[in-house]
Design a protein that fits this description.
The chain is of the alpha/beta class and about 325 residues long. Helix content is about 40%, strand content about 15%. A six-stranded mixed β-sheet has the order 2-9-5-1-4-3, with helices on both faces. α8 links the parallel β3 and β4. The radius of gyration is 19 Å and the shape is globular.
Length: about 325
């Protein structure tokens, strides 16, 4: 679906905060509609390409909006810290590492089917770059692994809480939840699957099938229900991912420059050359984590070992927008 003239007018004439909200609303409208498991791969692929129209706008005539992204869109970390201060007697956070808006329908449908009330379902911004350690550090942890076996400590920004970080079956995760009033549970899935399925001949279809299986399973929802018992629960992610296997190939000087700058990645720390490409293919942004150069939009390029078919860290919407879902068990 092409962008409408009215949306393009809004994006090119509105203040950055309003323009970004319109982009997020459009991405949510596309991504959050119900899914059927039998048609999930084709439907998610179609939606990915529809959101790609927004990415193409942001990489061409609307690229300057990326320079306002960190100030115009609330970060997941800031939103979570603000929510944690709400006067709920008991609360829990489930961080599904690398979960994108593509997987949001499974959460919404599953919550309805398993007796949850959905209080909000929106999208917030990953850290820039969209990487795991940057998100952990924004919450006051040294890294994701610090949360393992209640190792979160007393200096992070979600006090007090019991913490855990594992890559275990959902049933085993449920058995870890004790009666502590507040919980922060960080699970490695689906990011572990993103990297497993990033090789040649694999990609989004593998991950879509796995997500459908995982997020509709009784074991997953039994774990969520255990975590939400007596608690108000937020389900979020640290970042999304790009289905780079579907991205068009860059060519010529652009491809050479992207390869030299990023190798097989999509972000590089520190200032540096962005070249006089117009529109830009690389943007240099000052972020809370320092200055970074980041790949803009949907391009891939040849690199040693082959460019991954799934990855994250650059500037495309499904990399930098994350689900933010608030649930309670219906009484």
């Amino acid at each position: 679906m092409a962008l409408t003239a009215s949306l393009i007018h809004q994006l090119t004439t509105s203040p950055a905060v309003e323009a970004w909200q319109a982009i997020i609303d459009q991405a949510l409208d596309i991504a959050s509609a119900p899914l059927e498991a039998s048609k999930a791969t084709s439907t998610v692929t179609k939606r990915d390409r529809e959101i790609g129209n927004l990415d193409n706008f942001l990489a061409s005539s609307g690229w300057d909006l990326w320079e306002d992204f960190t100030s115009a869109v609330e970060r997941t970390s800031d939103c979570l810290i603000r929510w944690w201060q709400e006067p709920y007697s008991q609360k829990a956070v489930l961080i599904l590492d690398g979960l994108s808006l593509r997987e949001l329908p499974w959460l919404l449908q599953g919550a309805e089917q398993h007796g949850f009330t959905i209080h909000q379902a929106t999208a917030t911004a990953s850290e820039i770059p969209g990487e795991t350690n940057e998100f952990a550090q924004a919450l006051g942890f040294s890294s994701r692994s610090q949360l393992q076996n209640n190792g979160g400590g007393n200096s992070h920004k979600l006090q007090p809480a019991r913490t855990e970080c594992v890559d275990m079956p959902w049933q085993d995760c449920a058995n870890l939840i004790d009666a502590s009033p507040n919980w922060i549970f960080w699970h490695h899935w689906p990011d572990s699957k993103v990297h497993d399925a990033a090789g040649a001949g694999q990609g989004l279809d593998v991950l879509v099938r796995d997500a459908a299986e995982q997020l509709t399973s009784d074991d997953f929802w039994a774990f969520v229900k255990r975590l939400a018992k007596g608690r108000r629960l937020i389900i979020i992610s640290d970042h999304g991912y790009a289905a780079t296997g579907y991205f068009p190939d860059a060519d010529g000087e652009v491809a050479q420059f992207l390869k030299q700058t990023f190798a097989s990645g999509r972000a590089k720390p520190g200032p540096g050359d962005t070249r006089p490409f117009v529109p830009p293919v690389v943007l240099q942004l000052d972020t809370p984590h320092g200055t970074y150069r980041l790949a803009v939009g949907r391009r891939k390029w040849k690199s040693q070992g082959g460019y991954p078919t799934l990855t994250h860290g650059g500037l495309s919407l499904l990399e930098v927008l994350s689900p933010f879902v608030e649930l309670t068990i219906k009484q």
